[in-house]
Amino acid sequence: MQRLRASAQARSTSRPRGPELPQVQDLRTDQGLAVRLYRPTLDLRPTVLYLHGGGFVIGDLESHDGICRRLARIADVMVLAVDYRLAPEHPGPAAVEDAVGAFAWAYEHLQELGGDPEAGVALAGDSSGGALAVLAAVRLHAGGMTPSALLLAYPNADMTLRADSLTQEGHGWGLEADDLRWFVEQWLPDPDRCDDPKVSPAHADLTGLPPTLIATAEHDPLRDEGNALAQQLRDVGVEVQHVQNDGMVHGFLGLSHVSEAAAKAGRDLFERFGDILRSGIAVSSH
User: Fold this and answer.
1) Is residue 286 included in any domain, yes or no?
2) What would the 3-class secondary structure string for 212-244 be?
């Protein structure tokens, strides 16, 4: 595990830093959770709580620093990245609990952080972070604190891993099916919990969730899970925008420095999410 995380950290440090912003600050929540604040301007902006990917096992504030910087700059939003607890030391749903706690803390301190109180707090995440965003949103909605919107990039939506794309795209495209299975085993040591709604979005009650933007990638073993999640959300009346990225692979948000196509896909996604958040302000203020 240490070798895996050291390798992931080495990849993080080799990537370009991302756009400079007026304020990037490391903070701690009242519960002691490390978070990183990104502000594209010192004026108030919509707030996005970001949950990084990494198979529930790797990733931290550094691994997704460039993605968070781009999201803040392109969408023109304040981003708060969360350094949640990782599996297997902290199996599911520990990371969901951290996300919910960080959300409540951000909501309580919104204006002093630089967030627009009229815009609320949105949730965003990629891969496993997308799963955490959905699961946290379900809990928050049940507690009367629904996020303003969701951004789910190539989410890991179904821990049973039964979708056809796992076989079709699970070899040679950057995310191997066997690795994916191993990651889920760390998150859920008990295989009988793979359809537990507390840890697997596809099995949760998604009723009442906010407007959701989902991005899937053609050559991603998680593609069909994301497609199915978009339909599940629509089926319970959630407003969904689903962007299917032809030619893209899993993790394309982190490939903007090596692929202009990936950079454009990420730019388009972040711009669209910024538009969704601002349209929410317009609706709520009338």
Assistant:
1) no
2) EEEEEEEECCCHHHHHHHHHHHHHCCCCEEEEE
Q: What is the CA radius of gyration of the chain?
A: 17
pTM of the model as a whole: 0.96
Task: Let me know if residue 127 belongs to a domain.
Answer: yes
E strand map for 104-179: 121-126, 150-153
Does a structural domain hold residue 204? Answer: yes
Task: For residue 60, give the CATH number of its domain.
Answer: 3.40.50.1820
Per DSSP bridges, beta strands 47-51 and 23-28 are: unpaired
Rounded to 10 degrees, the C-alpha dihedral 148/110/25/20 comes to 50
The verdict on residue 179 lying in a domain is: yes
Residue-number span of the structural domain to which 196 is assigned: 2-281
Number of domains comprising the chain: 1
- Which amino acids are annotated catalytic? 127, 220, 250
pLDDT tens track of the chain, all 286 residues? 778 887 777 777 778 888 999 999 999 999 999 999 999 999 999 999 999 999 999 999 999 999 999 999 999 999 999 999 999 999 999 999 999 999 999 999 999 999 999 999 999 999 999 999 999 999 999 999 999 999 999 999 999 999 999 999 999 999 999 999 999 999 999 999 999 999 999 999 999 999 999 999 999 999 999 999 999 999 999 999 999 999 999 999 999 999 999 999 999 999 999 999 999 764 443 2
First to last CA, the chain: 52
CA pair distance 285, 48, nearest whole angstrom: 19
User: Which residue has tokens 């990733």?
Assistant: 59
